[in-house]
Amino acid sequence: MKKFAFILFSLFIATNSFLFAETSFKHLNFVYFSNNLTYTQGEDTQSYTSTRTLSPFYINKYETTYGIWYQTKKQAEKIGYNFQNPGQGGSNGKRDDVPDENTQTQPVTMISWYDAIVWCNALSELKNRTPCYTYKGEILRDSSDTASLDLSECNWNANGFRLPSEAEWEYAARKTKSGFQKGNQISGQNQNDSNIYAWDSENAGSSRTVGTSGTLFSPDFISDPASGNSNNAGIFDMSGNVLEFCWDWFENYSKENPYGPSIGYERVSRGGSYSIYTPFLFNGDRYSFDPNECYDYFGFRICTSSK
């Protein structure tokens, strides 16, 4: 049996002094999956499944926080980037507000799939990496250019930042040290109550600080990021908190293309959320949405193919 390893690396994100001053979030923290990369996507939940073999990839342990989103967006706007939606901190923040103690470690919400794609390119350029998303060879820097974004291509070999493919997302949600969780389970759940692994409509009702599922919540106390329960790979909030964008167009799984169809009408999102509108939190549950939609329960996490 191949040895299974989760490898972490951290990327420093330059911040103003108020950002993440009392947290560990001066870094983006990635989990690396490098072997045993074949699994059955959709197992135990979908009527159609497909065997997937992935290339090695890194995925962020945390949903993208409003603090990192805001700082990157403001820097990117100075070099010509444009965002349709400025985002907000979690479900209760205000759009484009300066992050504060309450919102900086909330997941960014009220942004569209288009905004997330452009933001990934912005972070890549600001960190001197090659952006993943282009149209006719041009880097995509304007989230209002939806026609180009709908036809965009992803360079999976680039060292920039990107959304996970749906296959990567499910792999990261289900992978354990000895195999895979079932698709009809909460990510990280074993014999314990699923409430300790996911913020949902029953135990939360609004978004929470990333990485805090399973902690006590009160309006007067804010849990520290990563103080909650991760899944078996050390990744937080793969089920619940906010729904997460994936790259793929929504369609039945294709055996020919692990990155989904080349065209479509709606994009894939995964993981469910705190909202009563997206209550399905199992590893294999799928949602479809218009890429122009934005809600206070939509967010994302990032991947990269290179350290």
Write the layout of secondary structure elements.
Blueprint: E1 7-12, E2 27-33, E3 38-41, E4 50-53, E5 57-60, H1 66-77, E6 88-89, E7 108-109, H2 113-126, E8 133-135, E9 138-139, H3 146-150, E10 153-154, E11 161-162, H4 166-174, E12 243-249, E13 267-270, E14 286-289, E15 298-299, E16 303-304
Parallel strand pairs: 12-15
Antiparallel strand pairs: 1-2, 2-5, 3-4, 5-16, 6-7, 8-9, 8-10, 11-16, 12-13, 13-14
Helix pairs in contact: 1-2
CATH fold type: paralog of FGE (formylglycine-generating enzyme)
Radius of gyration: 18 Å
Helix share of residues?
10-25%
Would you identify the regions where 5 or more consecutive residues have pLDDT less than 50? 1-6, 12-26
Strands ordered across the widest β-sheet: 1-2-5-16-11
Task: Output the number of helix runs.
Answer: 4
CATH superfamily: paralog of FGE (formylglycine-generating enzyme)
Helix/sheet category: alpha+beta
Question: Shape from CA axes?
Answer: globular
Q: What is the domain total for the residues?
A: 1
Main sheet: strands, sense, barrel: 5 strands, antiparallel
How many E-type strands?
Answer: 16
Provide the succession of SSEs.
EEEEEHEEHEEHEEHEEEEE
Distance between the termini: 26 Å
CATH class: Alpha Beta
What is the averaged pLDDT score?
Answer: 87
What share of the residues does DSSP label as strand, in percent?
15-25%
Q: CATH architecture, please?
A: Alpha-Beta Complex
